[in-house]
Design a protein that fits this description.
Blueprint: E1 2-5, H1 11-19, H2 37-46, E2 49-53, H3 59-65, E3 70-74, H4 81-99, E4 104-107, E5 112-114
Parallel strand pairs: 1-2, 2-3, 3-4
Antiparallel strand pairs: 4-5
Length: 116
């Protein structure tokens, strides 16, 4: 399972995923933060990467044309990077298991919602 962490999320989250055997952040891409949403979708599909984002602009393309490959929408609002990393650490195995059968998951500070 591979992940692509969107620009508005901290690089620290991507490094956490990398240390867990997963990866990358949009900052690792050639255009870095300037990578457009359509380009992110293409990379996600070509490399079978789950897009981790706070950007709700990815919801409609996902629901209508299945782009990106899979979607993890983070709906925590503004929280400290350390809190976000703790949230991922506590829920990571559940997310991995859920993504084996589902394509669109939303995670808030208190809840994981499986949409598809």
């Amino acid at each position: 399972m591979k992940f692509l962490v969107d620009a508005q999320l901290p690089i620290r989250l991507a490094r956490f995923l990398q240390a867990s055997g997963y990866d990358i952040h949009t900052r690792d891409l050639p255009k870095q933060k300037a990578t457009s949403n359509p380009e992110i979708n293409v990379i996600s599909i070509q490399e079978s990467r789950i897009l981790v984002t706070k950007d709700s602009d990815f919801i409609n393309p996902f629901l209508t044309v299945q782009q990106p490959y899979k979607l993890l929408l983070i709906t925590t609002g503004n929280i400290k990077n350390s809190e976000l990393e703790t949230l991922f650490s506590e829920n990571f195995q559940s997310l991995v298991e859920l993504f084996k059968e589902h394509s669109y998951i939303e995670m808030s500070q208190n809840t994981i919602i499986v949409h598809l």
